[in-house]
């Protein structure tokens, strides 16, 4: 009954509007919003009182509005993923894979995107594109990318009076998002507390089959030029995490020039 009443209401409006129409025509008009836009053909209704109703909008204005909406959508997605503006519009095609290890890293993140790989550790020096690759995944897989410092800060703030989330809520969210990248592993103090929540997050993601990427400027202990030092990646992880990473994961030590030095 409600649907019938609604249909009758709109039918009455349509009849009222069309009863006032005495003519329709097509005219060439200029855009009133942007003088740089080209003229376009517009359908016009001539009403009974002599007024005109334009049924066609400027196609260039429409295109600009669609492009603006698309840009805003992408920015919104990037902000939700915590992606930095530098990487908003980046794609895998923008990654300069100049060395064998960079090519391997690119193929690995593509495997993650396609669902064929769940865990990657990207190691290597500054400016080799590690964060860029992980940011693209975070954005396109509706996930998150955070640095160790950011997560540590969020957890510390969870114990303040005005905290909106508890530590458990934070780590459970990070353990549940479709994709997670943790950057700058090894840049913080590596306390037992950090190792505990990192172990919890990665263990949950492992058993749930959820993909993640760990990023560090360090290196594996077996590749350490000093036979072991504070930059060895294993120093930042508990043994259980290292064990998890040995299962169905790829660890890639990226060698390449600092692309930032070329700018």
Explain what this protein looks like in three dimensions.
This protein is α/β, with parallel strands linked by helices. The chain has 2 domains: 2-61, no CATH class; 84-262, P-loop containing nucleotide triphosphate hydrolases (Rossmann fold, 3-Layer(aba) Sandwich). Helices cover 41% and strands 17% of the residues. It has helices at residues 2-19, 59-80, 100-114, 130-140, 148-157, 167-174, 192-208, 239-245, and strands spanning 21-29, 40-47, 52-54, 119-124, 144-147, 180-183, 212-215, 249-254. The strands form 2 sheets. A 5-stranded parallel sheet has the order 5-6-7-4-8, sandwiched between helices. Helix 7 (192-208) links the parallel strand 6 and strand 7. The protein is elongated and about 90 Å long. The protein starts with a helix and ends in a 9-residue tail after the last strand. The model has no long low-confidence stretch (mean pLDDT 87).
